[in-house]
Amino acid sequence: MTTRIAIAGGGLGGLTLARILRRNGLDAVVYERETNRAQRRQGGMLDLHAESGQHALAEAGLTEGFQSRARPEGEEHRILDSDGRTLIHHVPEPGDFSGRPEIDRGDLRDLLLDSLPGDAIAWGHRLAAATPRPGGGWDLAFHDGGHADCDVLVGADGARSVLRPLLAELPLSYVATLVQLTVADADRRHPDLAELVGPGNLWCVGPSRILSAQRMGDGSLRVGISVHAEDRPVADFGDKRALLELFEGWNPRLTALIDAAGEPEPRRIEATPTGARWPHRPGLTLIGDAAHLMPPVGEGANQAMLDAAELAARLVAAPGDPDAAIAAYEEAMFARIGPIAQMSARIQAMMLSPTAAEDTVAFFTREPAPAG
User: FAD-binding domain spans which residues (predicted)?
Assistant: First the structure.
């Protein structure tokens, strides 16, 4: 009898899981709330780590496709202080995919989407509730009134997971405010800023705040501003004048990134408790942000994709006993994620400390740098 696997959420983790399961002959369907792949802009670029994100793509049979779209030169990473002095400048080896090459999130999602048959994704299906069936498995209810059922249900539905409360109450803590802006067509319209950022990532670090930028594949610059969660209400950061006030006294060459950008998009950065876990429940588990939401310091997408690869491997190896596969996946995932979540929280706090520049230099000179 075929085990029917439902995946709630069509982000990178959910799509990776569906691809590996389908590649190995297991029946998996992704239920995605968006109505089509172009409904929402997919964000900045990601650095994919060899041991996690790239490993998952290898399991998915997509290494060649990834390397054709990725930019190894995007691993270049510059860290400056508020006066514009260079603190660290990492330059990767040309064409080297063994480190952490960058890829636009949208390009990576398209790679995964294109690898799946049309019947693997149910667009426009926003999960409202999941109810256990008496004989095992789950009944799914969607916001449009539709229903479906499955034998195994995987929550890949992100920070506000509908399925997480069925396993554990994991309160989200508000750890920072992130404001994102875009400088369009930087090479032509703002060549000085394009040169400042370079082909990869730029961090400008000052007391209790950071101004960052990254080069996108379309030639735009994705600008980010991070401040303490309690500094001001999130809505206050929708005004560029308020953003520029945050960086009063900084080198104008750096704050020009804000001047040149479009409208700010502020949002809360939240995290689940480090070390969080839940008791095993038959036929249900979580991957990615639904399982372990962390500050965005380079691990989120990588760990989501690794979750997918490891869960898929367990399910493929034990197709007749999915509950044993899920239990084994969860124990291994909890052990792996604990130290990574602690490190991510430490990096987030370090970058927003009063001595952020000094702390960042000390960190990057004693540990491998998580760019991106």
Answer: 3-318
